Amino acid sequence: MKIPAARGVASAVLFRILASPLDGGRPELGDLQEAVRSALRTTADVVADEDLQLVLFCLYELHYGGVEGTDPDWEWDPGLLAVRALIERPFEAELRRLADTIGAQALRGLDAETAPDAETVAQALFALVAADGGPSVSRYIGGKAAGWQLKEFLVHKSVYQLKEADPHTWAIPRLHGRAKAAMVEIQADEYGGGRAAAMHSALFVRTMRAAGLDVAFGAYLDHVPAQTLASVNMMSLFGLHRRLRGAICGHLAVYEMSSSIPNKHYARGFRKHGYDDGAVHYFDEHVEADAAHEQIAGRDLAGGLVEAEPALLDDVLFGARAALAVDGRQGQMLLDAWTDGRTSLLAPLPATEPAPAAEPQAVS
Predict the structure, then answer these.
(1) What is the pLDDT at residue 153?
(2) Residue 149 has pLDDT above 90, yes or no
(3) Of the residues 48, 83, 99, which one is the last residue of a structural domain?
(4) What value does the CA radius of gyration of the chain take, rounded to a whole number of Å?
(5) Is the residue at 66 inside a domain?
(6) Which of 270, 268, 259, 267 is nearest to 189 (CA)?
(7) Residue-wise over 3-38: b if at least 16 C-beta within 10 A, else e?
(8) Are 332 and 344 in contact (CB under 8 A)?
(9) Domain residues for 67?
(10) By the 8 A CB rule, do 349 and 152 touch?
(11) To 5 degrees, how large is the angle CA 202–CA 363–CA 142?
């Protein structure tokens, strides 16, 4: 990923550090810590703070594909890890506050003291998803989205979908037994069952190309707002911390449980605008795959984890509720902009809209 444009003092200092040799950038670590502390003191909403979410996203990216031109040793530099922790603490606290606003009625009577079994946990998660009253971006896409809005939708999704499944994969070595086997089964499908062309991230690349978009990871980082970054940062937070292994499992479970029907709407919307089966295959694949994954994720992954470690129930529910809360906020942001006829991005995309290009469907 290329270093993006700074959005404030903290990200400007971070990018100077990342562009420096390891020893050359160390003197500025104190400046970065102070800039982050200052931003945290003044921000009204850490989830929507452009500077802080960009800093956190780029610090996490050091653990994924890396940042272009950066000394790889920055990944584990104690100074940068300390800066990351400065942001993570209030970010997690705000995620917990937001999660507490979601689905309390659906979870009534469910607690670790009763040692719930896997089926009880799964049913509670299904009830949580069913009770979610968040905005339906998928219905908007399927019903009345304009062509430029479809492209913006893909740009928002690209920040995660181009590395789809990677944040959840961090959990595999932290799990055991039934939960671990379930996670591996789900992730194997996400990665195409060993076939590179069938990886979900590769399918998404074909959809983006059909829309005439740049498929390089991070190409639109200067366009997407903080709330889009926060959704991905939440996954990285959960996945990179062993103590939050319950949260990443709950997050994945609710993602799988709430995916199949929305992807039907997405497929319908893109086909209405002339995208062919090859371009829409990404959405079609998720309709089928996630209908199976939701059962595995609910019962074997989340449920199996809680059966083995009852104390993780609250974290499983936290991850699930936080996913619904944060993605609900992001969805409302998109719909508010689109219904007003304005861009949902920090900077609009070029006005040209090439005709959807046909691409061969991945071999299964």
Answers:
(1) 98
(2) yes
(3) 99
(4) 20
(5) yes
(6) 259
(7) bbebbbbbbbbbbbbbebeeeebeebbebbbebbee
(8) no
(9) 9-99
(10) yes
(11) 60
pLDDT band at 357, cuts 50/70/90? very low
Would you state the structure tokens that stand for residue 226, as one six-digit string? 């903080």
**The two structure tokens encoding residue 300:** 């074997």
CA dihedral 213, 219, 221, 222 (to 10 degrees): -90
**118 & 183 share domain:** yes
Q: In terms of residues, how long is the chain?
A: 364
Arithmetic mean of pLDDT, 344-351: 89
Contact 306, 298 (CB under 8 A): no
Task: Show the tokens assigned to 17.
Answer: 């550090």
Are 198 and 364 a contacting pair, CB within 8 Å? Answer: yes
The token pair at 82 is: 């300390």
Q: Yes or no: say if 150 and 355 are a contact pair by the CB < 8 Å rule.
A: no
95, part of any domain = yes
* Side chain identity at residue 61, one-letter code: E
Which residues have CB under 8 Å from 206's CB, separation 6+?
278, 279, 281, 282, 359, 362
Q: What percent of the chain has pLDDT over 70?
A: 95
Q: Tell me, yes or no, whether 360 lies in a domain.
A: no
Alpha helices in 137-213 (DSSP H): 137-143, 147-161, 166-169, 177-190, 200-210
Q: How wide is the angle at C-alpha 117 spanned by C-alphas 114 and 118, nearest 5°?
A: 145
Task: Confirm if 133 and 330 have CB atoms less than 8 A apart.
Answer: no
Q: Roughly how many angstroms between the first and final C-alpha of the chain, as a whole number?
A: 29
For residue 134, count other CB atoms closer than 10 A to its CB.
15
Rounded Cα–Cα distance for residues 215 and 253 (Å): 28
Q: Tell me, what CATH number does 186's domain have?
A: 1.20.910.10
How many structural domains compose the chain? Answer: 2
In this predicted model, what pLDDT tens digit does every residue of 95-114 receive, in sequence order? 999 999 998 887 877 776 67
Which residues 6+ apart lie within 8 Å of 203 measured at CB? 281, 282, 285, 362
| Nearest of 247, 251, 254, 249 to residue 179 by alpha carbon | 249
